[in-house]
Amino acid sequence: MLWLLRRLGTSLLLMWVVASIVFLALHVVPGDPAEVLLSTGGTSPDPYAVAELRTRLGLDLPLHVQYGAFLAGLARGDLGVSLVDDYPVAEEIMLRLPRTLELILAGSLIAVLVGLPAGTYAAVRHGSGFDRGAGATAAVLQSVPVFVLGTLLILLFAQTLRWMPAGGYVPASESLLRHLVLLLLPALAVGKGLAAVVYRMTRASVLDALSRDHVRTARAKGLTPRRVLARHVVRNALSPVATVLGLHMGALLGGTVLVEYVFNWPGLSTPLLRAVEARDYPMVVGIILTVSALFLLINLAMDFLYAALDPRILRS
User: Fold this and answer.
1) Cβ–Cβ under 8 Å, residues 272 and 264
2) Phi then psi dihedrals of residue 162, to 5 deg
3) Are the C-beta atoms of residues 310 and 7 closer than 8 Å to each other?
4) What are the angstrom distances between the C-alpha of 300 and each of 104, 138, 294?
5) pLDDT tens profile 226-244
6) By the 8 A CB rule, do 249 and 194 touch?
7) Which residues cross the membrane (predicted)?
8) What is d(CA 116, CA 138) in angstroms, rounded to the nearest whole number?
């Protein structure tokens, strides 16, 4: 229990550090943020408009007051209002966040369903043709950028074979089958790198477990190879795989931005790109903080899963 509380406290501390860095970045960057937001085409903005925007953003208050108000707003879930359309940032994020999470979870599921059995089989058949071929495939998947693979998937399955639509989004409540069909290609693009990582880690972990003394003892007792693999090898090999999976699931948050753009998937990438182009500071900050919080939550969940797989961690 102490280990779990310590990990939870560390995650909360890191979230506070990230929020503080994002807040201070506004004041460390040279120039008046209000002038930057209102500047268009290299012309100087109206001083009255700058003063009004500074008041609206609270930039005319002392720094410590702004910082306190910023943290208080985060504690209430208030991320401010978009400067473009006066729409609450939190509501926009909550509308689009489930779509991004769905894409990440679908990509992670594909990665596990492909990488885990492939890595296990490659370790059991170490040195075989499958082992060499799967290793080469994993290297290629890790080296190809997500937007390149996404474009190739569209060219192959949508333009050439015409098996799948090129992109778009249909709510699951409207048509579940259509929704899953549109999700498949972007999920493949998102999960391809993670599948290679899961494959490599699973293969290495299973190879290490196969050489342990308790595995040799189980074989000597006459257990079948399938029972030895299921009860004594795979379970012990899952702990490092879970750790790597958690780290890379957080990294998928960055890759989904390009994938959503390529496949026209209406997740967080659309308001983020629009906010950066329009210099919509509250929207950019809100999405950055949301992504940072998700990264920490994913890693915290993987820590709990790691502890469940290896109870010795709870005693550390």
Assistant:
1) no
2) 55, 40
3) no
4) 16, 27, 10
5) 777 766 677 777 777 777 7
6) yes
7) 12-29, 103-124, 136-157, 177-199, 237-263, 283-309
8) 13
How far apart, in whole angstroms, are the C-alpha atoms of residue 197 and residue 230? 21
Q: Are the beta carbons of 164 and 158 closer than 8 angstroms? A: yes
**Domain ranges across the chain:** 2-76, 96-278
Question: Is the pTM here over 0.85, yes or no?
Answer: no
The long-range contacts involving 86-95, CB below 8 angstroms and separated by at least 24 positions, are 89/282, 89/283, 89/286, 90/286, 92/271, 92/283, 92/286, 93/268, 93/271, 93/286, 93/287, 93/290
What pLDDT sits at residue 219? 66
Residues β-bridged to residue 81: 88
Shortest CA distance to 307 belongs to which of 10, 11, 7? Answer: 7
Output 148-154 pairs: Cβ under 8 A, ≥24 positions apart: 149/188, 149/189, 149/192, 150/185, 150/186, 150/189, 150/258, 150/259, 150/262, 150/263, 151/262, 153/185, 153/188, 153/189, 154/185, 154/262, 154/263
pLDDT, tens digit, for every residue of 18-52? 888 888 876 776 666 677 777 765 667 778 887 88
Distance CA 49, CA 52 (A): 5
Q: What value does the mean pLDDT take over residues 76-99?
A: 85
pLDDT of residue 183: 92
DSSP letter for 158, please: I
Structure tokens at 68: 């306190």
